[in-house]
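Lecture 7, part B: from sequences to assemblies.

Below are the input chains for today's worked example.
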Amino acid sequence: MRLPPVPGEWIDRSRPVQFTFEGRAAHGFAGDTISSALWAQGLRTLGRSFKYHRPRGLLSFANHDANVVVQQGDRPNIRADVTEPEPSGRLAAVNTFGGLQRDRASVLGRLSALLPVGFYYKAFYTRRLFPMWERMFRRLTGLGRVDFAAPRLRTPKRYAFCDVLVIGAGPSGLAAAAAAAEAGARVVVVDENARPGGSACYQRAGDDRQRQAAQELAERLEARPNAKLLAGTCAAGYYADFWVPLVDADKLTKMRARAVVIASGAFEQPAVFRNNDLPGVMLASAAQRLIYRYAVQPMRRAVVLTANADGYRAALDLLAAGVQIAAVVDLRPDFDEPLLATLRERGVDLLRGACVVEAMADRVSGALAGVQVGPVDAGGRAGTASLRRIECDGLVMSVGWAPAANLLYQAGATMRYEDALGQFVPDRLPEGVFACGRVNGVFGFERKVADGRRAGQAAAAHAGFGHAPSASIEREPLCPSHAWPIVPHRLGKNFVDFDEDLQLQDLENAAREGFDNIELLKRYSTLGMGPSQGKHSNMNGLRVLARLTGQSPQQVGTTTARAFFHPVPMAHLAGRGFVPERHTPLHAHHERLGAQWMPAGVWMRPEYYRIEGRSRQQCIEHEARRVRNAVGLIDVGTLGKLDVRGPQAAEFLERVYTGRYSRMKVGTTRYAVMCDEAGVLVDEGVVARLADDHFYFTTTTSGAAGVYRELSRLNAIWQLDCGLVNLTGAHCAVNLAGPRSRDVLGPLTDLDLAGTAFPYLAVRLGRVAGIGARLMRVGFVGEWGFEIHVAAEYGPALWEALMRAGQDAGIGPFGVEAQRLLRLEKGHLILGQDSDGLTTPLDVGLNWAVAMDKPFFVGQRSLKAIAAQPRRQQLVPFTLAPEHAGEAPKECNLVIEGGQIAGRVTSIYYSPHLQRHIGLAFVRPDLSEKGRSFSIRLSSGAVVAAQVSAAPFYDPKDERQKEAR
Amino acid sequence: VFNRNGAPGVKREWWCHTPSNTWFIAERDTERDLVLRTFLPRELR
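Predicted structure of the full complex, as structure tokens:
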């Protein structure tokens, strides 16, 4: 039933919302939650429990109530206790068979004796039957239905910074934020609830003054320019160095603070007695939230089960909402309660030292119809004699609190169990992290505000604003939490964990079976592993285990509090695939020429250029043939390009590369191989000497960034007198290759291109088409060729000039695939394709490039050790028979010898020039002799014979790179 | 070559600030998760 307007209510009565629940029309107001709207209509069974499918209503109604979880279309597991109903939304309870009201699976409740604790583990023993159990449980238990066709949601991520982050906008959090802001700190205060104020707004004891005070605090705070209040935002975890993910409905904000105040409050805890899960049995704070946030009368006639002052305050709130109070049942035999007199005046019946032993269900509706109340002895044990039945349609429980200390644990705080409070409180806090309010064991409103101010000032001081106060707050005069709010019952169904349907006897049995450590108990019984993650079950579970094992709660300890503290939508967590992609200055030219793109390291390179009506293979062969017969042009701007200058530049290269560089003549280039400390081949390139103290060298495309970083590190260690400049992005480079390359280049430059003036492996500085260039005679593809390096901004002009000049010679571009084919014909290897993370230069026949007698190079010591051992593998060139037709070997097909793996193919192509398949393969050393045959197993399983050949396959004497005319 | 002592304690580590390609050395207490000191390699001499 909806109450007349309540001051501070969250609903907007001028905006009704219509929706359907389980196929029936329902209505509420804007600002309602799904649960409050349904409860206001008189519905009591709102969900079914996880295992036994028992009818459930509201329990905590505090953002972690797993009793009522609903599905809307493809959105599973909507928390009805905090989610606003959407207009025309179609909602249904999750995990029911045949609807919420007549759930056929509720028969499981009667079979519970056959489903003992640890059933999963016990069922594992019989491997034959396990699949059956698994199928059954997957059907019967669980939450919402995941729609695999649901569209993918993308949510934004934000970064934010502040001096003091306050988590929780209740009285203590607001006071802390105000104090920190007054000290001058930039403050952000977050609260998971839709509005600030916390318990001050609903634990009113029939009096509105505290709510007004809290609201005033919030308003004053929001008026400050250096404070920000974020409602509906959950601090989902705590990470090192004050880093806290803030989760709201739309996004994740990564907040970095200088100090953090945790004012997260406490979770009210249920009492454990038979049928404590009937719809109508709820926590006192749930009833108070119903009244003051949503103006819903929680019940008509209530019994209040309590063991602290909060229960009396709740009783006054119920009276204010027109609820008749049948009795206040207090677990404590004697106590000094200031509010008692007020309640007595209003004619409320009080039962001291008594307890609810069992809740009774209405036969028709299944909701609460009455309770059985019995006495409690001095040791806190409930007797079952002299039970008294009290009729009621609601039972509110206020027997204790558990601190919402998850973030404190994650921050590294140590907690101490305080007997006088019946609660864990922070013992030692990490530097810069502060706690106040209920999580700190402070309960009264005025005291919470004072504790908040203390923490806020201390946090501001830690962030460098103002001074930390010296005063501390005295502890609570009355204990807010009862040490044993638990009543055993021989018929069970006294639930400790509502999410997972765990009864008291389940925990007793688990402990008896040997799982008597809190972490083991959790995993065996699944205590605290449901959607609310133990927020209203861990404390009672801990009390049960402490009593069973004769330990104190401190000795039992708590389970690890892991992030995230609260479920976070997957869309908030999913990162975006961020793969940077680099383009050379010639990208647009390739695009116009019909490039088929392929990734190479972080770069995009043309794999080949498409020609209308021709296959990929035909295009590649066409490009290769053009290089062999005329002239081709390839963009090699993706190679790493580095300059090293200084008196010790040559010494530097001597140390990082395996070859010799100090005696190189100016104007020459040399092939260079780089190893890591283990002697593994990590990079290769060409070193060119431009002056005595100036070298220019290239690295592989994928190695560029890593080589530059590693060389910088090495010189930071060696401190040689030379400097390294990364020109990879600043330079554009092309390779002009083919028998007619000189005809193309000649008219564009003043350089003498004759073989004597510009021999193979020489480097020259000059101008090409008026552009300053570094030219190198290279032979990677096995033809007369020039690598031309120019400033990146002139790359397009160079490309266009060469293409124009080469028209008569039949110039055309060639891509990476054609280049790979051409280099294979010359027997050149490609790092990372023909080598792997264990390959040394000795395995691939690069011994000639390794000067073992130098004083030092990186990897030399390891190579010496490796050279002394027998080779395990050798890279060899091989050919297939020219008449081979049909399926060809693929890269990574295995070499099989005598039924054993004896190697693998690393590169293979059909060579149009040689009219046969050629390739490179790693083989056992005994198979590496020239002329030796070995067999390769194809992907289909068939075997083909190959023969070790000699490299280069094409032009073995390099005639084509020498002066022939 | 690969013999590194991973026992918790004060470690001297090489870090690289990639935007400026600056290598620096951090003395870090891996037991207490604290950075004690950072400095440039040339100060090692």
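Note for the exam: DSSP finds no helices and three strands in chain B. Keep this in mind when comparing with the next example.
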